[in-house]
Amino acid sequence: xxxxxxxxxxxxxxxxxxxxxxxxxxxxxxxxxxxxxxxxxxxxxxxxxxxxxxxxxxxxxxxxxxxxxxxxxxxxxxxxxxxxxxxxxxxxxxxxxxxxxxxxxxxxxxxxxxxxxxxxxxxxxxxxxxxxxxxxxxxxxxxxxxxxxxxxxxxxxxxxxxxxxxxxxxxxxxxxxxxxxxxxxxxxxxxxxxxxxxxxxxxxxxxxxxxxxxxxxxxxxxxxxxxxxxxxxxxxxxxxxxxxxxxxxxxxxxxxxxxxxxxxxxxxxxxxxxxxxxxxxxxxxxxxxxxxxxxxxxxxxxxxxxxxxxxxxxxxxxxxxxxxxxxxxxxxxxxxxxxxxxxxxxxxxxxxxxxxxxxxxxxxxxxxxxxxxxxxxxxxxxxxxxxxxxxxxx
Amino acid sequence: xxxxxxxxxxxxxxxxxxxxxxxxxxxxxxxxxxxxxxxxxxxx
Lengths: 394, 44
What we know:
- The complex is a heterodimer of chains A (394) and B (44).
- Chain A has three domains: 2-60 and 194-261, FAD/NAD(P)-binding domain, CATH 3.50.50; 62-191, FAD/NAD(P)-binding domain (3-Layer(bba) Sandwich), CATH 3.50.50.60; 285-393, Enolase-like, domain 1 (2-Layer Sandwich), CATH 3.30.390.
- Chain A is built from ten helices and 23 strands.
- Chain A has helices at residues 9-16, 81-94, 106-117, 137-149, 196-201, 247-261, 291-296, 349-357, 362-366, 382-393, and strands spanning 19-22, 24-30, 35-40, 46-50, 53-56, 60-62, 75-77, 98-102, 121-126, 153-156, 160-166, 169-175, 179-181, 184-187, 191-193, 224-226, 233-234, 241-242, 275-279, 282-288, 301-309, 320-328, 334-341.
- In chain A, a hairpin with a 5-residue loop joins strand 3 (35-40) and strand 4.
- Chain B is of the alpha+beta class and 44 residues long.
- Chain B is 30% helix and 25% strand.
């Protein structure tokens, strides 16, 4: 676990002069008196602490379904290092044989892999007709096939209706179509901004209940800043406010807030929705808008989808990569991209993400001078082959 | 006069990045970060 901790409270105190206090929960923010009410979780005592300047970085909380039995033992809402450790301990000590994962997003899929590797019989229930809802259905299908291939029993298009329990411990997951035995259950239904504290204090909220901030990470309240999963961001492609919970954004936004608080000048101009994941041998990545979002904006679009190779086809360990490029019909403006493939596939998404930031058309992308040597890619990089395919239809 | 005080709520990536950057630029600032879990800043 140690390697997972970027810096401990002791390191913050001794090396950076930051009084980092863990097991301290802020219960209330008083913006008028400019102080917070804090509870020490080890002895439940409370105290007030005055501030001149405040950063709200309260993150996100897992979405918990309101169904019977949801509070039973053996059901884990995965959201923090702490809950991850709890699950690992439960697998080590209680030796569960069957696991059911509810939710086919990043957390659900990564947990499916982890528990399959630990030898459990794993089932995954997803309400939608596809896993990985941030991909288009055709690309999600490739991920579903990979899950089934590693032995996961996949139930798509099924909704959780409750849990069967015995003496306060979960025994099965019940969906609208079946009952699946479960020694442990992992809930991965996504997260929502943890903005209750800010809202109660009177800090204005925006999309999905996230905290409204400007490019410098200032809230609407003087000397109150916010950063991370709890804030609203600007989406460069849709040009709309979004709330996307990702560690990359949190790090950058925190840095920007800190520079501005320190008297410097920095901005966080926005996001394009870039994310990557891995399910056993399969790498998955996406950026920009997916088909559903493009339709919601009322745009006409084309999809260039190709299969290619991660390296020159004759080179050792070359393997399949599928790339899909979405572009606006007529003008050819790049709107998004998705990649599924073996090792070497996912990080190619960054070329598409950078092109989105630049406001490129698919023709601009094709003009990019990208690296080539047989160990790394075919002469035409798969991303550029997909851009060519899209261009043909523009 | 008392030092100017920064309070950070949340000790993960965003909160601790903000605290660290503010410290780099302002040696005189008093900075306290409150985190309800037992850990700060993990590699998520």
